[in-house]
């Protein structure tokens, strides 16, 4: 028996999945429960919100799926050698190479970079001015990922990289998801413009690779060096094209996501002054008048809970997807080969049974999350495809928020629509979250010495 099928015509199902997934999924969940199927232009999807079934998808059944196949529409952004698009042994090999720099001690090496970028950002703000948080957060996260991937030497070209990445990301959402609508009608057409920007960013990256090939460094100093020195089992090095694809993957996957998560967080924080007060009090007591350091981060438990709660309430990605390579049984239903099985974090994060009053913003839920099911918090996906930047992104958000929150007093500009809208792949607040700066404090004196 197949899972219950939602009777919506393919064009409407496709439109609703892109435009308003929350409404679609909550309606379907109410009607059909924790497993149901829906056919869109991209094929047949089976949406799952039963936690034990999700666990099996991520663990027991993981070899029965391809994941790269579900995001082939991303190829023009990141290239066919991107970790996002690979599957099988090639995926496992690349993942092993790209994961370490974004974890543990290596990740902590970026603390100074993250903290200084945060203080510089606030130093540019002016009391009484209105700023758009999405823009600020995009700029800072892009600066951080560029330096983390390309190292210090490339930083002189950071403004160019920022400009080209922004250019590429201007592509309208429907062209991101629907490849058959991509026509190059000259450099003023949306797809034509995209190709021009992509050529510019390619040029920047290939020039950097060529520069390094001409002057190889014996010891890797950044992620690009690591890629250039890595060899597969047969002793082959990565080609320029492969390195370019992974650079683009890290640039795209590694900044917009963190930027939007940070942007979202300002809405509940500014709408819940008690939470903000408690958070700033925790930061002040742990950090005091010193620069934020790696050792302080584990002590900021309320900050950790606030980030988790914000990512639960406002989902960046409503689902993650896996394509079945062989027939499969899930919850007694037969899932045919070629179906896309989609653990639906958006539904899971709003299950009343796990998160009572799910729309309420309560970081306290995560102060003791030992009673939560291990698969009930899924903003970073799971299993062998779980986001490689999960630790890095949360660390970065903590350093940024712990550095800036004690220095700023902000107010949301009234009348903004905070209902999530698609911005490329992710869901974003449509106005970019405009805030007025009410007051500003200088950075702690030790930081001022470091920054200037
Ligand atoms: C808050 C920020 C972020 C969110 C919400 C996020 C979310 C995700 C999600 C949902 C996936 C798919 C997981 C799955 O299919 O199970 C993913 C994959 C990925 N993410 Fe992130 N991500 C974030 C930050 C980052 C950062 C900072 C980096 C780079 C350092 C990064 C690099 C990647 C890569 C390379 C993959 C593909 C992994 C694979 O296929 O093996 N992400 N991310």
CATH topology: Cytochrome p450
Helix content: 40-55%
Q: What is the CATH H-level superfamily?
A: Cytochrome P450
* Ions, cofactors and other bound molecules: protoporphyrin IX containing FE
Alpha-carbon distance between the termini?
A: 66 Å
User: Mind telling me the CATH class?
Assistant: Mainly Alpha
Name the shape in a single word.
globular
Q: How many DSSP E strands?
A: 12
Mean pLDDT, to the nearest integer, reads 92
Query: How are the strands ordered across the major sheet?
Result: 1-2-8-5-3
Helix/strand structural class: alpha+beta
**What is the name of the CATH architecture?**
Orthogonal Bundle
Can you offer a commentary on this structure?
The structure is a single chain. 47% of the residues lie in helices and 11% in strands. It is an alpha+beta fold. The chain has a single domain (10-451), classed as Cytochrome p450. Strands 1-2-8-5-3 form a five-stranded mixed sheet, sandwiched between helices. It has a three-stranded antiparallel sheet with strand order 4-12-9. A hairpin with a 2-residue loop joins β1 and β2 (43-48). α8 crosses α9 and α14 packs across α18 (390-404). Residues 67, 83-84, 95, 102, 249-250, 253-254, 257-258, 261, 316-317, 320, 379-382, 385-389, 392-393 line the site of protoporphyrin IX containing FE (HEM). Protoporphyrin IX containing FE (HEM) is lined by residues 67, 83-84, 95, 102, 249-250, 253-254, 257-258, 261, 316-317, 320, 379-382, 385-389, 392-393.
